[in-house]
């Protein structure tokens, strides 16, 4: 597990030191996200047939800095995010159940974009620091921080920006789940589609 605060400061300073001729925008942004959690490589056992996460809506809000230079822009963001999902538990004896999954976290994406008139394409890494245990019923041994990626499309109109992006994870959120007192190894990751609206204050 990497040390998230150090990575945040390194990427933020890199983004803000792109040259004296760079143009800066600072603004606020927020929106909705549709997130899910996956469970791959579930340890073979005599009880659980499958675990699956259904998409649920969450939200995010925070601030961004856009550094424009040489026809490109670098955009670090500092966001509070809420991810929700519904975990379906299917047992081998035919029983089924569902568990709530709610994760609050602090996200720092740093995307590089190329503009084509008002439109743009972008992508880059995102660092996330988990702020809570995501499920009280399904005991997940969650990690403090994870590294992921984002890619998407954006629009700029006046002081407003809008973007739609997908986020995936390079690292597992949890390596174990505990169901009915039994621990199973698993590779659990989150993914989400994110729709955001931002406004440049200056």
UniProtKB/TrEMBL annotation:
Checking InterPro entries in the record gives: Beta-barrel_OMP_2
Query: Pfam families from the entry?
Result: OMP_b-brl_2 (PF13568)
Question: What is the protein named?
Answer: PorT family protein
Every copy of the Outer membrane protein beta-barrel domain together lies at 21-172
Instruction: Determine the domain of life of the protein's source.
Output: Bacteria
Q: Which UniProt keywords apply?
A: Signal
Indicate yes or no for the key word Methyltransferase.
Answer: no
Q: Which residues form the signal peptide?
A: 1-22
């Amino acid at each position: 597990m990497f040390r998230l605060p150090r990575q945040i400061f390194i990427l933020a300073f890199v983004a803000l030191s792109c040259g004296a001729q760079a143009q800066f925008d600072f603004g606020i942004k927020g929106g909705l996200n549709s997130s899910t959690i996956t469970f791959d490589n579930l340890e073979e056992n005599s009880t659980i047939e499958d675990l699956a996460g259904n998409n649920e809506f969450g939200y995010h809000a925070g601030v961004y800095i856009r550094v424009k230079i040489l026809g490109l822009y670098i955009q670090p963001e500092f966001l509070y995010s809420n991810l929700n999902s519904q975990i379906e538990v299917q047992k081998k004896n035919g029983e089924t159940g569902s568990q709530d999954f709610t994760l609050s976290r602090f996200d720092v994406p740093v995307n590089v974009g190329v503009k084509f008139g008002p439109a743009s394409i972008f992508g880059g890494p995102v660092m996330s620091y988990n702020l809570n245990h995501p499920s009280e019923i399904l005991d997940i041994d969650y990690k403090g921080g994870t590294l992921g990626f984002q890619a998407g499309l954006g629009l700029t109109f006046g002081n407003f920006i809008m973007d739609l992006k997908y986020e995936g994870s390079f690292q597992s959120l949890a390596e174990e789940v505990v169901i009915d007192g039994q621990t199973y190894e698993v590779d659990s990751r989150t993914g989400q589609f994110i729709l955001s609206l931002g406004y440049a204050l200056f």
